[in-house]
Amino acid sequence: MEKEKEENLKKIQEASRILQETKSKKEATLGQLSALNQQINARNALINAITKEIELLDQDILETKDFIAALESDIEVLKEEYAEMIYTASKFNNYYDKLTFIFASESFNQMLQRIKYFRQYSQARKNQVEVIQKVKASLAKQKKQLELKKKEKQTLIENKTTETRNLEELKVQQNEVVKELSNKEKQLIKELEERKKSIRKLEKLITDLIREEREKAERAAAKAAKEAKEKEDKEAKGKTNSPNTSSKSTTTAPKKTPEVNTLSSSFAGNMAKLPWPVVHGNISHRFGKQPHPVLKGVYVENLGIDIQTTKNEQVRSVFKGKVIAVAEVPGMNYVVMVQHGEYFSVYAKLKTVFVKTGQDVEAKTPLGVVYTDKNEVSELQFQIWKNNEKLDPEKWLYIK
After folding, report:
1. 24, part of any domain
2. Residues 12-25: tens digit of each pLDDT
3. Are 71 and 220 in the same domain?
4. What is the pLDDT of residues 58-69, one digit of tens each?
5. Average pLDDT over every residue of 76-85
6. What is the pLDDT of residue 165?
7. Is the Cβ–Cβ distance between 84 and 39 less than 8 Å?
């Protein structure tokens, strides 16, 4: 629970920084709304974590109370047993009575047993006292822990109250931003159309590059197969005088190179394990067809995910591979595309780029810096493809 709470607090801090950057513009923007939504989601998650922690503490407090009641009952029983021991011992308290009881034994063995009995009985009383003291100490410890748990619960309740109040304030801001944006319907539709054009251009760039890489790989594989066949024919020609020489020959079908197969297999084995392309940030728009945050009945198609982050945030490769393109797409700024065997990762909306085409990169190699638009929104468009198939990048990144 503590770990979950810490993670939620980190998300709140990140979302707060992003929200503050978007608030520098007086007018409402979709980026500001997205940042508010992230803040609200993080606050809700934190409140849920606190609620769970309070529930666990309630259960713990109840169990502790039951344990205290059991210890108090044990002490009463131990005290009664000890009182009986004292009463019994008082009967033999007189030294003369003890000796009389011992020497009244009918045999030597019986006398030894009676002496042993007095020693054991005396030790039993001492042990009983020790047990009572230990149970009392345990009882005091449990009562102290109970008080600490009650205080901890009270602190959590106060924290929950504070976070709930903060959440309500954020929801008020959210409603105000939505209301303001709703009055800018024409502007939002125009921005949406421009985004669609940019996405189409980016998609064409990606599919063309993937086709070129596939054709290049097929040509290389065909060339390798041809060379292997020529070598095989040459060896067979040199053995024409051998009676065991077979006249049959086989043609090897073009295959992917071992390097491509290895890299593809390695990338595929990292689903839900890949590092994020930015250290700080949250997903502002998810993969696939998603409802527009303001325009009713309008859906937005996303080829990947958008990650809203902080200004001048570095963008990094999520896996080792080779940079196959550094391009500029209107509306998407600079775009970097990295090949990982059959898989490709795409990083769009970069302000500056640190790598060049043909460069080999490792996981977390810096590729560039994220672009910040006129509304002070810093957002990365991140995509993952397997050949011509678009994949949901969120399923590949490790869960924060």
Report:
1. yes
2. 777 777 777 666 65
3. no
4. 888 888 888 888
5. 73
6. 92
7. no
Among 295, 369, 378, smallest CA distance to 334 is for 369
State whether 166 and 195 are in the same domain: no
d(CA 86, CA 64): 32
C-alpha dihedral over 67, 70, 72, 78, to 10 degrees?
-130
Q: How confident is the model at residue 144 (pLDDT cuts 50, 70, 90)?
A: confident
Q: Is residue 116 part of a domain?
A: yes
The two structure tokens encoding residue 349: 């909306």
Identify whether residues 376 and 317 lie together within a single domain: yes
Sequential DSSP letters for 171-226: HHHHHHHHHHHHTTHHHHHHHHHHHHHHHHHHHHHHHHHHHHHHHHHHHHHHHHHH
3-state secondary structure at position 139:
helix
**Phi and psi angles of residue 143, each rounded to the nearest 5 degrees, phi first:** -65, -40
The answer to whether 308 and 15 are in contact (CB under 8 A) is no
Note down the domain range covering 93. Answer: 2-182
- DSSP assigned state of 394: G
Confidence band (pLDDT; 50, 70, 90) for 181?
Answer: confident
What pLDDT shows up at residue 128?
Answer: 66
Q: Which two tokens stand for residue 32?
A: 């500001």
Token digits for 135?
Answer: 């149970």
Report the amino acid identity of residue 151: K
d(CA 206, CA 197): 14
Residues 146/152, Cβ–Cβ less than 8 Å: no
